[in-house]
Amino acid sequence: MLLFFLMLWCTIADSCTVERCEEEMPPEFVQSEPTNTRFLAPVLRAHYRARALEVHFRSWNGNDTQRQLTPWQGELIDDALCHNADWMIVSFADLLAPAVQRRSAHYSVLLMLDYDALCSWLEHGLDNEAYHFDGLYTIVIEQLADRGQLHAVMRQLWNHRIINVVVVVVLARWEADNRGELVAYSYEPYGEGQCGNAEPYEIGRYANNNCTWDRLAGWFPNRLANLHGCSLTVGKVDLRPFSMTRTVGNRTVHYGLEVHIVDTLAARLNFTFRYVRPTDGVKWGILYAANSTGLVGLLQRQGADFGFGSLGFSLNRHTYLRMGVPNHMTQMIMGIPPKRPYSSFEKLFQPFAVDAWLCIALGYAAFALVTLALVTVNRRLAREPSLQHPLYQLWVLLMGGAVGWLRLDSTRLFLIGFILNALVIRTLFQAGLFQRLQSYASLASDLNTLEAINRAGLYYNMFRASLQFYRDNPSVPASRIKLVPNDQRDWDDLFYELSQDRLGGVMVSPIDCIAYYVKRRGKDGVVYVGKDTGFMYNLGFHYPKSTALQRPFDGWILRMHAAGLVYHWSEEYRDNRYWTNAKEDPEPASLRWNQISGGFYLCSALMLLATVVFLGEMVYFRLRTRRLLQQCCGGKTQTRRKKRVFGTP
User: Fold this and answer.
1) CA distance linking residue 213 with residue 166, whole number of Å
2) Domains and CATH numbers, the chain
3) Could you write out the DSSP letters of every residue in 391-459?
4) Which of 2, 104, 405, 616 lies most in the core, judged by the most C-beta atoms within 10 Å?
5) Cα 566 to Cα 541, 559, 561, 576, 587, distances in angstroms
6) In DSSP terms, which residues pair with 243 in a beta bridge?
7) Is 389 exposed, middle or buried (0-12, 13-18, 19+ CB in 10 A)?
8) Under a CB-based contact definition with an 8 Å cutoff, are residues 598 and 347 in contact?
9) Looking at residue 173, what is its pLDDT?
């Protein structure tokens, strides 16, 4: 309310309606006390109106424990309010107030007494949550001792990554011929040939004799639209398919989904980069207020300008880091082991379901019973010729064999119907069998929900960095969470063990990692996913809290999404043919030995059974013959018994 009444008073005050400079200041304005307060209003009107956001005024006067405005600072604020009351919304706050009590500032005006006051504000008053580091800053310093302090001011601002800044020096004591002119300075850390250079350069002068700036245009250019080949440090961890490396000759080549995005950003924003990795032996790491580990700790300590490597959004990372827009939207899901693989022998029974086999068995049993009944009736009526061994003849016909000459009576007509039916069944079986023999050996387990996993008594294998997403999930018992002890463990080894059901449970992973493994090594063992066990997992670049790179990066990443580039790149690392049994080529592939071996095994088993039966029949025949000989020719010699036995018709 106080702010509202102050602005209302300014809009009706006579002093606000007449913009007339005081009389020309005499040469006696020898920088003893700053007196001109008209210079700030045109700066705000020219550069702080692009967005309908409030302008934050802050002051810092060194070690003043009361932190009160000096009279000159009060007049400066009054004049800025009066001349911009038609559009400007102003926010005042104590610089030492907690960040939760302050609004986040994009437009900032900072009033400083001297260099020491600026350093004190950077150390104690600059809060990551209260300031946009890609916002606009106008810093008014009442006095600086020499140009060396001006250089030090710019270095301090660059160290804190405050880029879009203008420093207005009221009393430039090193300019002996200064007759009351205020000088505005800035710096270009990403300028052409100026990478990382905090050298100040003059952007404007305010002449007290005519109360105008010599130029106001170009004070806040888009310094991040073109980084002019400057080098950025990029933190990364390797995780397929997001970030990978391979050696080509003597050169290490980086590739992967997120690497494609970084390469595109580098081409569009014109910067170079070098990759760094965490040096503490931890990949992603855990974030704390201090002493964080892994990649997130590297970013928190500003050891890299940004980082990636399947870094998903989480509350903890939001607290200590700054997150960009999602560069890839995926799922964190459970990788589940396959069922026991079907052998080639078992595939022989796969063309028909159990109920179909039951129907076929019952149908052919009915055929057999009717055939026996007809044959029995025909024999009793003495119709010739009779059908010998009817059940055996049915089996021969079912297998596609031939029988002897048949007359067109009722029995034969019935058998002809059986032959036609068997032909249809065999055709369907052979068509289904060809497809089944070509299918892959593994099928997904019935572990599509967390409840099913819990009922099966399986463990949830996960890396420590993934624990934050499941720690508070009541459906995932803490007693069944098994952490991977080593962050550097190869994911391919874990997925292979999972495909062989050696982990004793499921594996928590982004679905892209599972899909890429299946594409490359699905022939060694397929890993499936629990369909209803995942949640949305958005990946994005993470930055230190004090960064100005997030906004330009976000803009280009959204353009990549709109153009379909991210989806196109992600499809390069997917291949669902092991999950859907789809063929790469439209033409059918030739059957391999492991696909048809079941038929040979079955044939060999039947041949062995036939051999055993044949030998059994021979043994039985000899035993039966010997018994008959003993009964018929008790005391005769063995030779005569043989002649008599084999000589009879």
Assistant:
1) 14
2) 34-218 (3.40.50), 344-426 (no CATH)
3) HHHHHHHHTT---S---SSHHHHHHHHHHHHHHHHHHHHHHHHHHHHHS-S--B-S--SHHHHHHTT-E
4) 104
5) 14, 10, 6, 18, 31
6) 239
7) exposed
8) yes
9) 56
Place of tokens 């270009």: 188
Compute φ and ψ for 284, nearest 5 degrees: -80, -45
> How far apart (Å, rounded) are the C-alpha atoms in residues 49 and 141?
23
Distances in Å between the alpha carbon of 529 and those of 334, 452, 507? 6, 13, 9
Cβ-contact 628, 645 below 8 angstroms: yes
Those residues whose C-beta lies under 8 Å from the C-beta of residue 284, and which sit 6 or more positions away, are: 237, 294, 295, 296, 309, 310, 311, 463, 465, 487
Is residue 254 within 8 A of residue 320, CB to CB? The reply is no
Tens of pLDDT, residue by residue over 399-419, are: 666 666 555 454 555 565 666
- Is the pLDDT assigned to residue 165 strictly greater than 60? yes
Report the candidate in 563, 634, 55, 492 with the shortest Cα–Cα distance to residue 268. Answer: 563
Task: Identify the bridge partners of residue 374 per DSSP, sorted by sequence position.
Answer: none
Complete DSSP assignment for 532-591: TS-EEEEE--EE-SS-S-HHHHHHHHHHHHHHTHHHHHHHTT--THHHH---SSSSPPPP
Cis ω before 485 (30° cut-off from 0)? no
Amino acid in position 134? D
3-state DSSP call for residue 638? helix
241 Cβ contact list (under 8 Å, min separation 6): 256, 257, 512, 513, 516, 573
User: What pTM value is reported for the model?
Assistant: 0.72
pLDDT digits (tens, 9 = 90+) for 205-225: 988 777 889 899 989 999 999
Pair of tokens at residue 453: 């996993």
Q: Go through 262-296 and write b for each residue having 16 or more CB atoms within 10 A of its CB, e for each that does not.
A: bebbbebbebebebebbeeebbbbbbeeeebbbbb
Residue-wise over 181-216: b if at least 16 C-beta within 10 A, else e? bbbbbbbbbbbeeebeebebeebbebbbeebebeeb
CA-to-CA distance for 38 and 211, rounded, in angstroms? 7
Longest C-alpha distance within the chain, in Å? 161
**Rounded distance between C-alpha atoms, residue 288 and residue 436, angstroms:** 54
Average pLDDT over residues 425-432: 73
Concatenated DSSP letters of 52-121? --PEEEEEE-TT-TT-PPPHHHHHHHHHHHHHTTTT--EEE--TTS-GGGS--EEEEEEEESSHHHHHHI
Element (H, E) at 378: helix 354-380
- Name 246's bridge partners: 253
First to last CA, the chain: 131
Q: What's the rounded Cα separation, in Å, for the pair 514 and 504? A: 18
Q: How many CB atoms lie within 10 A of CB 334?
A: 29
Q: Is the peptide bond before 241 cis (omega within 30 degrees of 0)?
A: yes
The token pair that represents 238 in the structure block: 């390797």
Do residues 200 and 167 lie in contact, with contact meaning Cβ atoms separated by under 8 Å? Answer: yes
d(CA 194, CA 189): 6
Residues 68-94: pLDDT tens digits? Answer: 777 888 889 999 999 999 999 888 765
Q: Is 178 helix (H, G, I), strand (E, B) or coil?
A: coil
